[in-house]
Structures are given as structure tokens and as C-alpha cells.
Amino acid sequence: MKTKVLSVDKMLGNEKKYKHAVDILKSGGLVAFPTETVYGLGALATDEQAVRKIFEAKGRPSDNPLIVHIGNPDLISLFATTISEHAERLIEAFWPGPLTVVLKKKPGIIAPSVTPGVETVGLRMPDHPVALELLKALNGPIAAPSANRSGKPSPTTAYHVADDLSGLIPLIMDGGQTGIGVESTVIDMTTTPPTILRPGGVTREMIESKIGPVTIANDNSDDQAPRAPGMKYMHYAPKAPLFVISSDIERLTEAVRTLQNEGKRVAVITPNELEVAIADWQFFVGHQLDKEAIAANLYGALRQCDLTEADTILAVETDLDGVGTAIMNRLMKAADGQRYSQ
Ligand code: AMP
Ligand code: MG
């Protein structure tokens, strides 16, 4: 299959491009498109055959549920049965935006493969002009996970999508680099109190300021206890083993030296302030205090590590304030839970 890439950055001639995308979706095909978090790989969420193609193209385990994207909060009642007052308050406050709400699903509407083995559906209204325009033109729900091959970092540019899925999907809509760079916050509103299944751009503090206390699902990879749906897979891993390390420049330099003495070549992912002169490769992700920039550039840096010949990757941790929780959640997954220790 030949993959077409259509730029939707500029205003001119875009109706034709959206029509092309809608024609593909309506005939059961897949379209990759930008959202404000990462690029999504979309299919019409009511078309079972089309949704199955997502799992095939990504190589995604079939028991990992997909998020359903909608263009308008009023559409929720088409897909979910009960919408609690708290859910309504969150939607009112944070949609469109990087918040997925998990609600009890209405049976028989969304294709079964979207919500394998669960009675719930994850819904989100993205805050990106291309995603919203596509949803409007389609006038239907789009099931879309991140547009990467399963196990690779989520794509934050159309080039990342093409690297992973070229030849496997008919169309990539190129809307430039995505703004937030980590996936949406997922909150299960069917539990009391609600449970954050995945931290993201909408932080716990932001949520609690609207609805009071919530819990955070245990996401420890050493934990043998059953996890919430969609939480049991390691994500975001670059090819070389990655270790999380503190931002102490002396410790970082010493770690690089020790690894090099063992014959390893080392890539480091650091804030702009930490220059590690002896590192074999260094990728800067943004100023230490600018965690929005670090989130936006993190996956790109992980992918760049895959283009080097590094044997080991050291990634500098951030604090847990604001989007820092989401950054550290993704980094610890990329590290398979490992911190660097001599
Ligand atoms: P991705 O789109 O690849 O970022 O993955 C979507 C993630 O959203 C899944 O891995 C789950 O963590 C979560 N999710 C989506 N729908 C549900 C649901 N109905 N119940 C629980 N988690 C969900
Ligand atoms: Mg994903």
C-alpha cells in the first residue's frame, strides 16, 4: 500500500484533503492525523473491520482498548449510558483537551474491538484544529490510539508516523509537530472516587480542583496484581536500554564515564542546562523549568536515540509537579522501571 502524506498546515485547498480523509474512513480505511497530544491512527469507531485494521497496522495487543474521539461534548450520550455530575464537570472544564473520560458504554454502538472485554468506553474531544475539522467532516466517532508501531514512542510529527507506518496505511495528515507531546490523561469515572489510569496534560491537581479527591491507579511494572485495562503493556521503549538518572551533573558525567569504561557508547537525554561534554550523543529537550517543552520534545528525543548506535541511554528525571508526573510516568516505562545505579 502506498502512503500519501497531505500537509494540512495551510488554509488553501483543505476541503478536498478532508474529503479525501473522510472517504477513506467511510470506506473502512485508516487515517493518521494530529491531535494536541500526539498523532492518532484513526478508524470509524462503529466499523469493526476498520478498527481491526488499527490493531494490525500497529501490531497492538488486541485486549488494549482504544480511545474514541468525538467532535462535540453533546455526542457523549450516544456512546455512554451514565454521565455523572463529576464527569460533566470535568468535560465542561477540560474539553476540548487532553482528558479521556472512561464511562459506562452503551451496548451495541461502538465496534467491539474498540473496548475489548470491558463495559466502559474512553471518550475524548481533542483540542486540535485538524482533528476537530476531520471529526466535523466525518460526522462520526473516530477510534484512535497513537499512530506508532506498538512498543515505540508515540509520534509527535508526521515523520515519526511515516517512519513507523509507511506502506501500512493509506493517508497521513501532516499538521506539524504536536503541542503537548504526551498522551491524554485517562480518568475512570465509573469508580468511586474516580481513578486516574494514566497521567497526562490535565494534572491531578487540575482535576481535584474541580471534583475533589481522586485516586491514581498503581502502575508499578514489578506489581503482579491485575491492572486496569490497558495498563499492562510496557510502552515507549527505545531500542537500547534506558535508565533514569538524577539531574546532578557530576553524577551524570561520572555515570557516562563508568559506562564508557565498560566499552559502552552512551546517549543522554537532558534539559538544556546540563551539557555532558563526554557523552557520545546528547539530546536536549528544553529548559529544566519548562516542563511543557520537555514533554513536547521527549518522544522525539527517544526516537533520535534509536537513530544512534548507543548501547545505553541515560535520561534525566524531572520533578513531579504539573506535567512532570506524566513525563516521569513515560520515562519510567521507557526505562522498564530502572534507575541508574553504579
Ligand atoms: P493509546 O491510544 O495508545 O494512547 O492507548 C489508549 C489507552 O487509553 C489504553 O491503553 C488505556 O490505558 C486507555 N483506555 C482507553 N479506553 C479505555 C477503557 N474503556 N477503559 C480503561 N482504559 C481505557
Ligand atoms: Mg499508544
Structure overview:
This protein is α/β, with parallel strands linked by helices. A hairpin with a 6-residue loop joins strand 9 (185-188) and strand 10 (195-198). The strands form two sheets. Strands 1-8-2-3-7-4-6-5-9-10-11 form an eleven-stranded mixed beta sheet, sandwiched between helices. It has ten helices and 15 strands. Residues 221-227 have low confidence and may be disordered. The radius of gyration is 20 Å and the shape is globular. The protein has helices at 14-26, 48-58, 76-79, 85-94, 129-138, 158-165, 204-211, 249-261, 291-306, 324-334; strands at 4-7, 31-34, 39-44, 67-69, 99-104, 120-124, 142-143, 171-174, 185-188, 195-198, 215-216, 242-245, 266-270, 281-284, 312-316. Bound molecules: adenosine monophosphate and magnesium ion. Residues 64-67, 102, 115, 118, 120-122, 145-146, 183, 186, 197-198, 228-231 line the site of adenosine monophosphate.
